[in-house]
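Onboarding guide, step 5: your first structure request.
Type a short instruction followed by the sequence, for example:

Predict the 3D structure of this protein.
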Amino acid sequence: MISINGLYATIRTLTRIGKWIALITMTLMMLFITYAVINREFLTPVVGDVEIVQLGMVVLIMFGLAYSQAEDAHVSIGLLVDRFPQRLQHIIDAIAYTFTFAVCLIIGWFTFQAAVNNMVNQRLSTDLLVIPFFPFKFIIAIGFTLWGLEALLKVVQSISALNKDSA
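The system replies with structure tokens like these:
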């Protein structure tokens, strides 16, 4: 049986890997866009540059979601909740993170099924470069699943903070 600390370490390691994938993707996109703009001005335009950047954005965003959750960098409105007692704040946080966990896993599961279906039955691809969509759908599924797992860690943290306040 896996311990809470082992689960925590595993999820955080996966999140760090996702963060580095997002950072590398962002760096490659920056270099590629610079190259494409310079080529467009002085030589010949790069064919499919918009498609490549759009697909790179999928990778960047999906692998950045879990890291944003881990760092509490998602947009949240604390105007009302911050005025509640600390115990009630932890309860609301636990409920919100539980919903985030559930929704992310549902989206991840259905996107995974769509990716498998797309890979097996329908070969959808980009218009110009004919890059298949299914690997990016798998990336979307992984991104939402990692985000959900980070939200699960926040549920555990909220519950432990709630128990600490009770003691």
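Each response can be followed by summary notes, for example: Helices lie at 4-42, 49-70, 86-120, 134-166.
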